[in-house]
Design a protein that fits this description.
Layout: E1 5-7, H1 9-38, H2 47-71, E2 73-75, E3 91-96, E4 102-108, E5 119-121, H3 125-130, E6 138-143, E7 146-156
Parallel strand pairs: 1-2, 4-5
Antiparallel strand pairs: 3-4, 3-7, 6-7
Keywords: DNA-binding, Elongation factor, Protein biosynthesis, Transcription, Transcription regulation
Protein name: Transcription elongation factor GreA
GO molecular function: DNA binding; RNA polymerase binding; translation elongation factor activity
Length: 158
């Protein structure tokens, strides 16, 4: 898979920091934990050893995953973007036409989405419905609770 993954500079920095921490802190710590657990003797009934090995497997898997994602990252500096249409990096304010509830999101890459922080994956149904639209447009989104309609109130960059 060589397809590029869109990413903001902040998202790239966050994943890079996680990778560095895994390699420089977590990996060495789990190696020490495995060595200490081995010193306790019989490995077949050694819970600490099995837990440490499991943790090591998780760390190694995450390192491989992060290296792949960072290697395919296409960093998009959203400070260079402008316009009125919703594209990657846009900060969008929406209102649910049924509940009048307002929400605000920034469209980011799938690897940096965090809905609680208002970071919405470009691959999500809501983001897909917004792409190419402008303030004043209404979008239709199929959710598990049925079809919902949102009006785009504002689109800004930076």
């Amino acid at each position: 898979m060589s397809n590029k993954i869109p990413m903001t500079p902040e998202g790239h920095a966050r994943l890079s920091a996680e990778l560095k921490r895994l390699k420089s802190e977590e990996r060495p710590a789990v190696i020490v934990a495995i060595a200490e657990a081995r010193a306790h003797g019989d490995l077949s009934e050694n819970a600490e050893y099995h837990a440490a090995r499991e943790r090591q497997g998780f760390i190694e898997g995450r390192v491989i995953e992060l290296e792949d994602k960072l290697g395919r990252a296409e960093i998009i500096d959203i400070r260079q973007l402008s316009g009125s249409k919703v594209l990657f990096g846009a900060r969008v304010r929406l209102v649910d036409e049924e509940t009048d509830e307002e929400v605000a999101y920034q469209i980011v890459g799938p690897e940096e989405s965090e809905i609680a922080k208002g970071l919405l994956s470009i691959a999500s149904p809501v983001a897909q419905a917004m792409l190419g639209k402008e303030a004043g447009d209404t979008i239709e989104v199929t959710t598990p609770r049925g079809v919902r309609y949102f009006e785009i109130l504002e689109v800004k960059y930076g």
